């Protein structure tokens, strides 16, 4: 929290954490996928620009690989509202390192929105909607999408059943939680040796019930080579609010 200089009232602050320390194994390119050029810019440049376009964001903390030589080449690396931290072995380690680096700036109750570098097609409007819907929520939550395919449970290539899909959603990012609660939940998962692939899982392990807010299907995680033309298609056509 900080104090609004005009009203003197406490105002909630919002921080962004971008885990961008992955190697992009499934992409199989000769540079990490966040530095591949799509629709005229590197993926990470698109992602940071779109998050900086959200006016209520105080700053963006980007977790980078220890040997990252590409970051200084991005125009966004020179933006005053952009900070960096060193990433870790897994995505959750990178997020935790970024949260530790934020400790000099963020207060316990400030909101942190964690967003994958690889989800460059995020729209500022979707981030703003998530912030508005969750601002007064006791826990926080995530953008997510109900699944649209029939699901199959498979063992050794054979279908064992068709689980009920009516309660199944796909987790997207941003994932928005209070600074201290998120940091403690990730620390406790790490201490317990529990692998968490998103922030909501860490909060769930801590006994919390995060909310889902329906996101957009073009908020894809660029993962495999075939995702690149799709991302270019979305990035070129989205109306950038
Ligand atoms: N140790 C890691 C691993 C991943 N990430 C980031 O977490 C996001 C989601 O991860 P994913 O899409 O799986 O990226 P990679 O780990 O790079 O891909 P792969 O699993 O194919 O190697 C990405 O923005 C990635 O850069 C990170 O910051 N630190
Ligand atoms: C956080 C996430 O994007 C939600 O879908 C996802 O869990 C990260 O992907 P990963 O491949 O498991 O790192």
UniProtKB/TrEMBL annotation:
Alphabetical list of PANTHER family matching this protein: 2-C-METHYL-D-ERYTHRITOL 4-PHOSPHATE CYTIDYLYLTRANSFERASE, CHLOROPLASTIC
Keywords: Isoprene biosynthesis, Nucleotidyltransferase, Transferase
Keyword Zinc in annotation: no
Transferase listed as a keyword: yes
Pfam family, one: IspD
Gene source species: Methylococcus geothermalis
Top-level taxonomy: Bacteria, Pseudomonadati, Pseudomonadota, Gammaproteobacteria, Methylococcales
Family under the similarity heading: Belongs to the IspD/TarI cytidylyltransferase family. IspD subfamily.
EC number per UniProt: 2.7.7.60
Gene3D superfamilies with a match to the protein in the record: Spore Coat Polysaccharide Biosynthesis Protein SpsA, Chain A (3.90.550.10)
Superkingdom of origin organism: Bacteria
Residues annotated as site: Positions MEP for the nucleophilic attack: 165, 221
Single GO BP term: isopentenyl diphosphate biosynthetic process, methylerythritol 4-phosphate pathway
GO MF annotation: an example: 2-C-methyl-D-erythritol 4-phosphate cytidylyltransferase activity
Pathway linked to the protein: Isoprenoid biosynthesis; isopentenyl diphosphate biosynthesis via DXP pathway; isopentenyl diphosphate from 1-deoxy-D-xylulose 5-phosphate: step 2/6
Protein name in UniProt: 2-C-methyl-D-erythritol 4-phosphate cytidylyltransferase
Function of the protein: Catalyzes the formation of 4-diphosphocytidyl-2-C-methyl-D-erythritol from CTP and 2-C-methyl-D-erythritol 4-phosphate (MEP).
Reaction it catalyzes: 2-C-methyl-D-erythritol 4-phosphate + CTP + H(+) = 4-CDP-2-C-methyl-D-erythritol + diphosphate
């Amino acid at each position: 929290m900080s104090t609004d200089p005009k009203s003197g009232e406490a105002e909630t602050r919002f921080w962004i954490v971008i885990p961008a320390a992955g190697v992009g194994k499934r992409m199989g390119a000769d540079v990490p996928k966040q530095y591949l050029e799509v629709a005229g810019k590197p993926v990470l440049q698109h992602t940071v620009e779109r998050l900086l376009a959200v006016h209520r964001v105080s700053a963006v903390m980007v977790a980078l690989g220890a040997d990252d030589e590409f970051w200084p080449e991005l125009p966004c690396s020179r933006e005053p509202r952009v900070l960096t931290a060193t990433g870790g072995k897994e995505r959750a380690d990178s997020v935790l390192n970024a949260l530790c680096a934020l400790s000099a700036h963020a207060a316990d109750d400030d909101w942190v929105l964690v967003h994958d570098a690889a989800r460059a097609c995020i729209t500022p409007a979707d981030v703003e909607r998530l912030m508005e819907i969750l601002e007064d929520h006791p826990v926080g939550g995530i953008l997510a999408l109900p699944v649209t395919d029939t699901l199959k449970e498979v063992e050794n290539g054979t279908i064992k059943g068709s689980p009920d899909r009516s309660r199944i959603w796909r987790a997207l990012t941003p994932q928005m939680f209070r600074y201290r609660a998120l940091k403690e939940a990730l620390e406790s998962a790490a201490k317990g040796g529990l692998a968490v692939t998103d922030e909501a899982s860490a909060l769930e392990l801590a006994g919390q019930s995060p909310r889902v807010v329906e996101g957009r299907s073009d908020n894809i995680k660029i993962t495999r080579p075939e995702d690149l033309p799709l991302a270019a298609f979305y990035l070129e056509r989205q109306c950038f609010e």
